[in-house]
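Following up on my earlier thread - several people asked me to post the actual chain instead of describing it. Fair enough. Here it is, all 278 residues.
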Amino acid sequence: MSKTQVLNRIAPFLLAPRVAREIRLDLFDIQAREIRLPLGNDNWQVLRPSIQKSFWEKIDGLCAKEDITSLGITRGMKASVMLPGVRVQNGGRFIVGLALLRIEEALNKGTAQRVILASDHSAAFSLAVQVADTFKMPIMLQSMAPVRHEAMAWQVYRREGLALSLACFNPEIWTANDIILLLDEGYAEEAARFSSGWQINLTDSSRGHAPELEGELSRQGIAPVLRNLAPLMEACLEDDKKLGPWGKKMMPDREKLQIWEAFLDNKRGGHYNTIKGI
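Reply from S.P.:
Thanks for posting it. Predicted structure:
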């Protein structure tokens, strides 16, 4: 019997979603509940659609039982889902807000004149639009295969009026006037070999974005990396009306969103090890 057959046979009985534990964020006086699905993304992908559907129905029932109205999904999980009465968050919007916050801090500390996005993900284009709309700065997308993104760049130009420059990924040409948003693991690993530019690591495995908050997660057995942190924070921001609305733009409002205070850089020369200072 193949691994796929075994998984599909045992999953409904041994690997069904369940409420695992409470997550306490004393920094914000917030309490959350973890619903654990003991399957890796690769194993999830080989489950029959009918079993996946039944798991989402169980998760929906658990959310109703626990009075959960906003659910953060770990970013490594490639699954699209709609749950009645539950807002499902993958952390993408939070990462956009964090990127804008980091850019604003970089602009306040240096003489940055350009933003470079190092990514092959389609999400980079929506982030580029937000950055351009917020800061009115030139934006370049660097990739190992920029020709693959020409069609999307043209669509962005026609739809948003944003002329996005495309270029090969090349840290050697970065200068002190560049803010570099690293969205892909491979590009972040390569960029770590260079000290050029103002590097902001926003990959799923990145950490050091909010040390005190990440310490709370670590003490509760949760890996304090962005793949876990971003969905959790996005769910909290959506669910807790005390924290205020996102608003039309993704730029976090420091006056209303107390949660963002944990992510502000109060150290000179770098953002909690996620950014190499100029």
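Residues 130 and 248 are 11 Å apart (CA to CA). That should answer part of your original question.
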